Recover the amino acids of this structure.
């Protein structure tokens, strides 16, 4: 109860009414649920406007008035006549100052939206086709509102369709970041035109920063090139040393690039898909613990140990976890899709990839320490040439929910079972360094819960067989629970367990701070086994001017070690504040204050940690 009062106090201090106790929010939610039930049962008294969120309803109301259209309450079984498209300004409400900025935004062309429609004139109006069209248009990079509604026509037996969209501000500085332990640890930023010439293409100068490096260069994305459902993605970066750049030095330590062209399975009716891609990264790989480089314990003449407590060993035996990596890969694939109630996909692919780790010229250890460091830290050095076959299926059953990853905006969830399996054969005959076979499988089942909740079970496993041995094995399982709306909010929980064994790649899991244990240091715990438990009580969004705001109470628990016997479970609780600006992004501003319940070498129980990010926590 004390944490609830803290959440309300934080909101009140910001002059925002507490979302936990605002009756209007709850009433709007109840009215929407009742309207959705009527429409789902094809009741002629269906009120389509009442099924929408407040943001969507405002856009649709203005669009109907502008076009002089009237909603058709009973479209089922009728043929689609005309399709009208109305794309609203980014700032359709608010002051004249805000609306002035619409002049700096290139609104999406009607032809661009029409080219992405799955539902076409002359077809029967069905819920499935309209929902699929909305999913196709509902891209978080371009739109904050996507609604399809039936509207009246004078032609007997027909119904027209009204497509309402609302652009997200495109000419902008896009950001996604994490601030933790008093440091900006991750940042993705781009100076971009997210709707280049109104075609929903992205042209940008992008920057990606982690704790060690900054990658910057041009980015271009077109998801419907030439109107042929061909997706083109291209990015080329120079990689700079972060610390040197902040000190005023332009120290280029590598480069990276990604280019891909693919013909998508753009609708459930699509039968064929294909694509090819190339990527490379010649740069420095690092691992961090807290805000400092992770160190490796390498005693002279002994084996190196990655996961240890630095305070318990001689500083002269600690080496920084850093090395140079040269990676590149090229691949091509083709996919065949078929089925109605169950969608099946069969894929064939071929790829060549290379990874070559190297010691830095500034490596501080001896020759003996270098050999031990390579054995304990480096992933496999290998050129792999792999032909693969894959199969998967899923049930094309979807529902539109809200207030899960974002606030008040529509989100699509797929229900039912899904499964994927692949088998790859690497061979020296095709130029690879080794003969091997690798296999992987993953699957899950998503179950609806009430009006707007769901829960999902998931599992995965992978292995590699080489020289008669099974190596680089991994497995994991997860349970995600999203309750239906309960009064003024909902509860979201995620539990996952992951494990590695016979691992020759020297990889390991980490947890701490923003990646699942918010009250502890960055990557504070590491090992071959990982358990995470995250739980949040999230409020419904409260409309405040052009914003959507809310609060959360959260609990995190996690454990990581090389064996299950060594794992110790650490916990924290906390309170958070969420803010959405739907005109500029679907992502949330997130501010969390976490209180650890355990004491470690780096963390004191009860000592709060503040984190800020521009995304959902999990």
């Amino acid at each position: 109860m004390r944490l609830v009062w803290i959440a309300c106090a934080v909101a009140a201090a910001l002059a925002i009414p507490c979302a936990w106790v605002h009756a209007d929010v709850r009433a709007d939610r109840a009215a929407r649920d009742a309207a959705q039930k009527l429409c789902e049962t094809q009741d002629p008294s269906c009120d389509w406007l009442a099924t929408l969120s407040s943001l969507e309803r405002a856009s649709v109301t203005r669009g109907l008035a502008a076009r002089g259209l009237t909603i058709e309450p009973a479209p089922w079984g009728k043929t689609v006549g005309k399709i009208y498209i109305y794309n609203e300004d980014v700032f359709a409400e608010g002051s004249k100052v805000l609306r002035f900025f619409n002049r700096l935004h290139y609104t999406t062309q009607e032809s661009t939206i029409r080219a992405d429609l799955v539902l076409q004139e002359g077809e029967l109006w069905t819920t499935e086709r309209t929902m699929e069209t909305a999913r196709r248009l509902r891209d978080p990079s371009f739109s904050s509102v996507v609604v399809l509604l039936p509207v009246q026509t004078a032609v007997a037996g027909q119904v027209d369709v009204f497509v309402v969209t609302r652009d997200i501000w495109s000419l902008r500085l896009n950001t996604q970041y994490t601030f933790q332990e008093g440091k900006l640890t991750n940042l993705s930023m781009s100076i971009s035109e997210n709707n280049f010439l109104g075609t929903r293409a992205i042209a940008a100068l992008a920057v990606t920063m982690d704790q060690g490096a900054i990658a910057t260069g041009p980015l271009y994305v077109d998801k419907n090139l030439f109107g042929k459902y061909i997706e083109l993605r291209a990015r080329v970066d120079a990689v700079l040393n972060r610390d040197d750049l902040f000190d005023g030095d332009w120290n280029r330590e590598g480069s990276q690039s990604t280019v891909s062209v693919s013909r998508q399975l753009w609708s459930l009716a699509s039968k064929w898909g294909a694509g090819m891609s190339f990527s490379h990264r010649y740069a420095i790989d690092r691992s961090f613990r807290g805000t400092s480089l992770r160190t490796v314990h390498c005693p002279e003449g002994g084996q190196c140990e990655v996961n240890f407590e630095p305070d318990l060993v001689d500083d002269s035996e600690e080496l920084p976890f850093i090395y140079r990596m040269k990676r590149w890969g090229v691949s091509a694939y083709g996919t065949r899709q078929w089925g109605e109630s169950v969608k099946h996909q069969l894929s064939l692919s071929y790829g060549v990839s290379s990874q070559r780790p190297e010691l830095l010229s500034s490596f501080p250890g001896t020759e003996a320490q270098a050999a031990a460091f390579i054995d304990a830290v480096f992933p496999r050095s290998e050129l792999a040439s792999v032909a693969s076959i894959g199969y998967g299926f899923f049930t094309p059953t979807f529902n539109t929910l809200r207030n899960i990853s974002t606030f008040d905006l529509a989100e699509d969830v797929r229900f039912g079972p899904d499964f994927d399996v692949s088998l790859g054969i690497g061979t020296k005959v095709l130029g690879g360094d080794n003969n091997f076979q690798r296999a992987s499988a993953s699957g899950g089942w998503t179950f609806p819960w009430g009006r707007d909740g769901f829960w999902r079970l998931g599992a995965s496993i992978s292995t590699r067989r080489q020289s008669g041995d099974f190596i680089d094995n991994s497995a994991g399982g997860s349970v995600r629970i999203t309750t239906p709306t309960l009064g003024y909010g909902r509860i979201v929980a995620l539990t996952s367990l992951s494990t590695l064994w016979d691992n020759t790649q020297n990889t390991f899991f980490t947890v701490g701070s923003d990646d699942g244990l918010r009250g502890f240091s960055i990557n504070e715990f590491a090992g071959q086994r990982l358990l995470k438990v995250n739980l949040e009580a999230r409020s419904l969004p409260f409309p405040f001017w052009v914003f959507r705001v809310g609060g959360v109470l959260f609990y995190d628990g996690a454990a990581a070690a090389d064996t299950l016997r060594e794992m110790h479970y650490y916990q924290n609780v906390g309170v958070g504040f969420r803010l959405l600006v739907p005109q500029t992004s679907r992502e949330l501003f997130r501010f969390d204050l976490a209180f650890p319940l355990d004491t470690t070498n780096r963390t004191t129980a009860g000592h709060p940690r503040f984190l800020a990010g521009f995304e959902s926590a999990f």
About this structure: The chain is about 15% helix and 50% strand. Residues 1-21 have pLDDT under 50 and may be disordered.
